Amino acid sequence: EDVDLAALKIQTKPFHDSEEHQPLCYRCSTTSPLVNNVGNQCTNCGHPFVYSYVSFEILPLVEFILEDGISDEEAVRLILASSGNKEPAETEEKPEERDEGVEIENQWTASEVNEQTLEIGGNNSLTTDPFSSNYMNFYQGGSDFQPVILNRLALAVLEPHEVIICRWPKPLRYQFYKNLMADVPITHCEHCNKMFHTDDYILQVLQKGHCPFCRTPSGDVGEEEVDY
Description:
By secondary structure, this protein is α+β, with helices and mostly antiparallel strands. The protein has helices at 2-12, 72-81, 130-134, 152-156, 198-208, and strands at residues 61-66, 108-112, 116-120, 148-150, 163-166, 175-179, 186-189, 195-197, 223-224. Strands 4-1-6-5 form a four-stranded mixed sheet. It is globular, with a radius of gyration of 24 Å. It comes from Armadillidium nasatum. This is Intraflagellar transport protein.
């Protein structure tokens, strides 16, 4: 009777996956159940998961689309021509030209009224990245996926090494992804447009001599973000 009663109690408890095994969405930083009704995408923001096609781990990539009127070729030129700098170097002041007690934008400054304090000066906040201000704009729990939309200014300040471009043939549009974790190297095969963890990709190429997904020979494989 004790065993039967314990079995009934176990069956009445709802099952929950361990949090460490649940897929993490890198856009909204929420976890989703392993099996859900919306498929391979976040149940909170609807962003599709981008998997590494070796280990099938979720990559820290967030897809963004272009504002109306921006062609794929123009977006590529803006991204590749960008150095990621948001302000020109000539606007920076030399250290010897700065006086104590003078307020400088985006710097820690000291001011004396009745007490000494440290404050962040300037009208602009420290987080002036247009992408960071756009990728959290979504309706939580909504059924429709709201992609990140970037204009020319936002494209011009992106770091080129953090952007992965999937160049699909016409009439398909290019797909653009931003790596939110720059210290995690990601490899992109230009033939099949699949992404991989760089370590997994290199190991597969050394063992088999070709891309682990499309089997393009290693001499013909074009890759991005590979750090040997």
